[in-house]
Structure formats: C-alpha cells, structure tokens
Amino acid sequence: MTKRKFLGSEAANGLLMLSPTAIYSIVVMAAPLIAVLLFSFMTPGYLKVIWTPTLDNYAKVLSDPIYQVLLGRSLVMAATVTAVTVLTAFPIAYFISFIVSPEKKSLWLFLITIPFWTSYLIRVFLWKVILGYNGVINEAFMGLGIIHQPMTFLLYNMNSVVLTLAHSYAPFAILPIFVALEKIDRSLLEAGQDLGESRIMTFIRVTLPLAMSGVVASVLIVFIPTVGDYVTPTLVGGSSGQMIANVIQLQYFKLGNYPVGSAVSIAAMGVVTVISVIFVFANRRFMRGPQ
Question: Which residues pair with 3 in a beta bridge?
Fold first, then answer.
C-alpha cells in the first residue's frame, strides 16, 4: 500500500481519531509511571536526587522487614476489603437485576451513586464521627444502657479501615456485577429449572458462572486501588492500620527521598500486578460460563 493510499484509508482515519486519546493517555498515565521508574534507580541524597544509577533502593526495599510487613499488611487488608465489598455488593446487584422492576432499576442505580455527591474526605471523616470515642455508635449504646463506657476498639485499627474502604468502594463493585447479571439470558435460568434444578443449584451452576466476569472486574476494581490507599489509613487506621502507601507518602512528602519512595511504589505495583494476573487466569474457566 502506497503512502497516499494509506493516508486516505479507513485505518489512517481510525489512527487519526485515536491519536489525541492515545497521546493524552501517554502524557497523563504513562509519563508519570516512567518518571517513577526512573527515580527508583537514582541515588538518594539529602533533600535532593543524585542522578547516579543504583540498585541499592530495591535492595533496601526487598531486605528491610518494615517494608515487607507493611506490604503484607496492605495485601491482607486489601483482600479483606475486597471480600467484604464484593460479598456485600453481589446480593445488592442481584436484587436490582432480578427483583426490582425494569422501570425502577435506574432509580436504584441512582441511589447507589448518591455517596459520590460528597467528597471522599468528608465520607471518611463521617466514619470517624460514627466510630469515634464520643461517636454516634458509642453515644447510642450508652444512651440505651447497653454499655457504660465508650468502646475503644471501633476506631484506629484495621477494622475501621476495612469498614470505611468497603463503604467507599461499594458502588464500584455493585455496578460491574449488575451489568454482568443484566446480560444473562433469563431463558437459561428457566430452562435449568424446567430440567429439575432447584433455584439454588440454578444460581450456582448457571447464574454465578455467567456473572463471574462482573465479579472478577469488581475484585480488581476494589483490590488494586485499595492497596495504594493512604488517606483512609491515616485518618481512621491509627498506627495499627498503616499501609504501604503511607510509607510512600512519608518518603515523598516528609523525607524528600524520591528514589526510595519510587522503589517502594514500583515494588508494590509489581506485586499487585502479579497477584491480579494470577487471579484473572485462575478464573478464566469460570468466566467462560457453564459448558
């Protein structure tokens, strides 16, 4: 194909239409990641970066028990948040898809998005008000005479972080599952029951496998950003709720140690990528649906 023919072809027109989006994605998404990757190989100095390549940053990250403990805690907390969020989101999505009448589904989806009308920080602070020493729960229980002293285990621990993050990411988990459930051909469910399957077995053998694409999407949407969340652990986690992102924030903004902070970031992204890829491949046969 000559140059003139290519410029007038549909392929050229398609590339021309995609190029602004591609350039924007490269500038906004790829460029910062490349910068972080380059910083991770530089030598840290006192409040400055020495442009001498080194692998000492990664050696420190991989050998220091603090980073290993915090990364492990972050993965466990993210997995817990993901499990709580998805297990809560699935019944809600199922209810909207199968129980709610078609003309009211839009209203229910609209109600799910209401929490996003307020700032993320405001929602986190509201959980502090609810779970705090003099918060709503303690005041209510004391007013009812159930307890005589405020409960101290509600806030500044891993449980409060899990609860706050699960609430924040719930809509992100509900919507993909709802979309997957909406795509299911209802005649398949009727056929299963006509062949003698109970409602529970029909759900297990037909509905759940066909909805697995939405479940997998929900898991990834919740798990990946949760590992890197540092605002919620800072505000409601206390010392026992700190995660790997808090160390990255400390290295960047408090210590000015960009190389080590970048190395921690790249290491965390690498671990999360490996786990996510393994999870997707492990669920491929479920995502294909019943055979």
Answer: none
Q: Residue 8 falls within a domain, yes or no?
A: no
Quote the CA–CA distance of 57 and 181 in Å, as a whole number: 46
Tens digits of pLDDT across the chain (291 residues): 455 555 556 666 666 666 777 788 778 888 889 999 999 999 988 778 888 999 999 999 989 999 999 999 999 999 999 999 999 999 999 999 999 999 999 999 999 888 888 888 888 888 988 988 888 898 888 888 888 888 888 888 888 999 999 999 999 999 999 999 999 888 888 787 777 778 888 888 888 888 998 999 999 999 999 998 988 998 898 877 789 999 999 898 888 889 999 999 999 999 999 999 999 888 876 656 555
Instruction: Of 219, 217, 186, 179, give the one whose Cα is nearest residue 203.
Output: 186
* pTM recorded for the entire structure: 0.85
- Backbone φ and ψ of 145, nearest 5°: 80, 10
- The total number of structural domains in the chain stands at 1
The verdict on residue 119 lying in a domain is: yes
Bridge partners of 88, per DSSP, are none
Residue at 48 is within a domain: no
| Separation CA 55–CA 225 (nearest Å) | 27
